[in-house]
């Protein structure tokens, strides 16, 4: 035993006890005749004191030699502190050191091990093991564990069985790009790492497992955008003999439980909106509803007023930014520049101040009178003091631009409070989306998603209009989970593959085992998967997932700490019957 | 909602209730005027009844058309059964069906979905989703979940934090063969799948995580022996500021907790034996101690008695098989044939009956008198009625042979009761083992294992004699967990790599990040990993792990259900800059 207590648990009740502690030197203050050391471990910090008059000389000298991050073990007596620190769990006491052992020395770390560090992203990633000593990262990992435990216990108590599905599976060209694994024993053949356990969880339903979940790593070999990882973690769930309503209730229950247990927050029944409504109202299928600024469609009231830009536009939309009537010309111009950036791509923006005296003042007063502008205010829900911003153009693009503006304004206005949680369901996603490049329909969710029975008649005529029994759970502007009722009928599944442009052979080759399984009594079933990394980050009130992953990869998919990926031995390649193709 | 109850919960208290059930047709008995159907789901079986006089004619006819494994939904009234079945949870009642919906039809399954099936291993693997419907497999998966939940809750309550370590890591030539994953974004480079999270858990200790665990998939690309899987699951654990004693106590606590919670069995404090004692006494470092038959070394008492075989042998060892004095000549010969099989490799076996009258009768009476044989009995602990079996030859080989014989006899004698659990610790493993082929030492555990400080002086002279602070937990003849105190000193770690024949460059290239980490204040630490698949199988009283894995692979590493691995698109290979080498 290297310690009798951790560095986070001693308080006034332990005064006069002899204790042994071990940990890292956070910092030390040497006043010549007196040395204070902050000793740190996972659980907290305890102040040590060495006093020229009361401490053995050898030990006192040894204490002087300690550097930051040295690992030490001390014995001593718990004494009352002269100047107590009420902000610290152990702030009432300190340890008068009688023995001191250096367990390991430490070089000066490349960045400070403090809550606010001087280390940049790159250096912290390279020395991730030091970064993890910092409270923000350490606490994020502990928080992740707490969330995962709550999820497991909740689902387990509800009768769900966690089943481990395989990691070495079969590659399918559908969807995102697979990571593949050459098989040594099966020459010229490859496994793939799962993008999700989708087919396995459906097979578990065919197998009568009834309620399945798994917290599981998934893999996608995609070019990494910021905050995407090639390996990520899902809470993967599936239930048999359920309808959409059952699934929504089940997982709304889970999320409500999490918010209560890990955040102490009780939320009402989740609002439910359709995909169509979400796109119309927020320009987005994962709306942040912690604030308003809902879209007002202005086509009707802006057309035929001699303003050529609006007249030429397919779509005109406005939002009312609360309290922004006070924006200066400079602030407005900055915002116009913001929407004109290539990432957003608007060609310009019209604005209209709703003055506190009730008058309206727009950048297009030449074309629109007070009467017209009043209608804008009405439709966008603007109140005196607000500013209406208007964008126009192609419907889809303009919605996307306005959605980005809405989020940006909310951020600038401080309306995206990380301690406020506004979950909702978005329902009735389209079954298919048209892909211009390949000239065919793709499954919006995946090829196993069930169409709504009442839309099935559109399959031969307007497949793009078929809605799916698919749903997303959205939290604070992020899709945190998504799922669907699955097809459980082999004929319908075959028709779906056909619709998605699979030949019979391709369907058979890739998903034959699933279609085959459906011939032996598949129950109605459906499910959902949460992205755990994102969920934990949002619950933790953070924008980025990186601190909630112990050893994340950078945007090139590299682990800079261990320097992976790397070249491998020729012998290894030879055994696997593969070779590297060198491109000149 | 497809059901108001599951098929496992209705009893006499529900009589007269209108209920809805859904599930699979287990079987039906059609008596012409009356049809009984066993409806099955994960939770049990409920008997349905349709009666020509009481059931609507259309429904009655529909019920006649149902085949095995059809998925149906029924509504009906809970009624008291005429002939109750006390062996069934729902045996007091049946459902008088008033509505019947076929949710999905089913082809006749390729094997019977019964506890004792007529399906062979291969067909059951191909249709694993049907195999999972069978109680033995389904219950094994539910049991595995229960064990995993107990492990997580126990460790979490003890302050352990589950941290997910990466799956895409770096390949190291040391140890078993890695599965590798080509990186598309880093041309000519490869990730490896982890054989264990060993280095990451050590880095987490350097990072101050203090108590870590993870239930995690690991991967080894080895030729598969029976009951080995290329992907397997570990309960991986690590602690900082601990000595060996702390770890033994911690994980003995976990195992005791598991035995109590999932088996209802209380076990005493685990016996602890050294590796040396285990080899001497059981010829094996994972002894089954549910029974005796400990080795008696007979060198002293068998030499110089004119029996040339013993005189020529390096090692003579005997065991006393309880109650086997009654073995017939035929039985003895069969056993001699058994030890002479190539898998065991003995050249012969001597035996000695300890008759109930106290006399001894051996196969080498020509050379040994009663006095001599009495000594054999004394040393092997034989009692009247027992049979002493003696093997001789090279020490290591003979121990291995005798160990196999001991296990075989125990099996034949019914001494390996799957409901009895005899855990123990084996301590003080050698640090190194000599590898004839490569002419150098290998780490017996892994290169991070700490030597015993008191043996360190042997490093320059007799490294093979250095004992490690390494330990295995053994249960019923299986190693279920193993671990060690790790080296946390960078100089000692460097010396270890040197001892293992690593050049400085190789050590730096492969483990530089770990040695680097040790420069920044590594705490003393150690840990252990359990093999979950095996642990669950043993707790479940089974010999084979396969039923405790939802989708296992066969001995060629193939998943015959999904037909993986498989060939992949040339486009995929091209993107990854690799090609398949065709061997003619």
UniProtKB/TrEMBL annotation, chains A, B:
Transmembrane segments: none annotated. It catalyses: tRNA(Asp) + L-aspartate + ATP = L-aspartyl-tRNA(Asp) + AMP + diphosphate. Its EC number is 6.1.1.12. Keywords: Aminoacyl-tRNA synthetase, ATP-binding, Cytoplasm, Ligase, Nucleotide-binding, Protein biosynthesis. CDD domains: AspRS_core, EcAspRS_like_N. Signal peptide: none annotated. InterPro entries: Aa-tRNA-synt_II, aa-tRNA-synth_II, aa-tRNA-synth_II/BPL/LPL, Asp-tRNA-ligase_1, Asp-tRNA-ligase_1_N, Asp/Asn-tRNA-synth_IIb, AspRS_core, GAD-like_sf. One of its GO terms (molecular function) is ATP binding. GO terms for biological process: aspartyl-tRNA aminoacylation. This is Aspartate--tRNA ligase. It comes from Flavobacterium urocaniciphilum.
């Amino acid at each position: 035993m290297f310690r009798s207590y951790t560095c986070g648990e001693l308080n006034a009740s332990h005064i006069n006890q002899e204790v042994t502690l071990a940990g890292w030197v956070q910092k030390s203050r040497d006043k010549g005749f007196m040395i204070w050391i902050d000793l740190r471990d996972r659980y907290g910090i305890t102040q040590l004191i060495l006093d020229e008059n009361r401490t053995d000389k050898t030990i006192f000298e040894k204490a002087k030699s300690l550097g930051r991050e040295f690992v030490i073990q001390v014995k001593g007596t718990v004494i009352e502190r002269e100047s107590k620190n009420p902000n610290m769990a152990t702030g009432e006491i300190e340890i008068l050191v009688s023995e001191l052992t250096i367990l390991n020395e430490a070089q000066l770390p490349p960045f400070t091990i403090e809550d606010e560090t001087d280390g940049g992203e790159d250096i912290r990633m390279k020395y991730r093991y030091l970064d993890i000593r910092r409270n923000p990262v350490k606490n994020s990992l502990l928080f992740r564990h707490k969330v995962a435990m709550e999820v497991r216990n909740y689902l387990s108590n509800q009768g769900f069985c966690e089943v481990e599905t395989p990691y070495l599976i079969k590659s399918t060209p559908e969807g995102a790009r697979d990571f593949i694994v050459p098989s040594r024993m099966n020459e010229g053949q490859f496994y793939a790492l799962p993008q999700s356990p989708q087919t396995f969880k459906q097979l578990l339903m065919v197998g009568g497992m009834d309620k399945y979940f798994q917290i599981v790593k998934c893999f996608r070999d995609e070019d990494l955008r910021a905050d995407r990882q090639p390996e990520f973690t899902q809470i993967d769930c599936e239930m048999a003999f359920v309808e959409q309503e059952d699934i929504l209730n089940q997982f709304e229950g889970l999320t409500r439980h999490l918010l209560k247990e890990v955040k102490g927050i009780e939320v009402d029944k989740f609002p439910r909106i359709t995909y169509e409504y979400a796109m119309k109202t927020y320009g987005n299928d994962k709306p942040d509803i912690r604030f308003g600024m809902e879209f007002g469609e202005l086509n009707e009231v802006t057309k035929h007023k001699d303003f050529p830009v609006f007249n030429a536009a397919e779509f005109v939309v406005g939002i009312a930014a609360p309290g922004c009537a006070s924006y200066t010309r400079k602030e407005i111009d900055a915002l116009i520049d913001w929407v004109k950036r290539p990432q957003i791509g608007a060609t310009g923006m019209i604005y209209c101040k709703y003055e506190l005296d009730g008058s309206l003042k727009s950048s297009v007063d030449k074309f629109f009178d007070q009467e017209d502008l009043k209608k804008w205010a009405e439709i966008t829900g603007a109140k005196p003091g607000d500013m209406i911003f208007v964008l126009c153009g192609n419907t889809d693009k303009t919605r996307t631009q306005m959605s980005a503006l809405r989020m940006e304004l909310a951020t600038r206005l401080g309306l995206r409070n990380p301690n406020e949680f506004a979950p909702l369901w978005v329902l009735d996603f389209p079954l298919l989306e048209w892909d211009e490049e390949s000239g065919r329909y793709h499954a919006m969710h995946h090829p196993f998603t069930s169409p709504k029975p009442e839309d099935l008649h559109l399959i031969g005529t307007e497949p793009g209009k078929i809605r799916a029994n698919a749903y997303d759970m959205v939290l604070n502007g992020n899709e945190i989970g998504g799922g669907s009722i699955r097809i459980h009928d082999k004929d319908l599944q075959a028709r779906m593959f056909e619709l998605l442009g699979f030949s019979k052979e391709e369907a058979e080759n890739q998903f034959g085992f699933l279609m085959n399984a459906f011939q032996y009594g598949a129950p109605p079933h459906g499910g959902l998967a949460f992205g755990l990394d994102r969920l934990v980050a949002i619950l933790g009130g953070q924008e980025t997932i990186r601190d909630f992953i112990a050893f994340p990869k950078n945007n090139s998919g590299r682990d800079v700490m261990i320097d992976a990926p790397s070249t491998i031995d020729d012998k290894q390649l030879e055994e696997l019957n593969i070779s590297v193709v060198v491109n000149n």
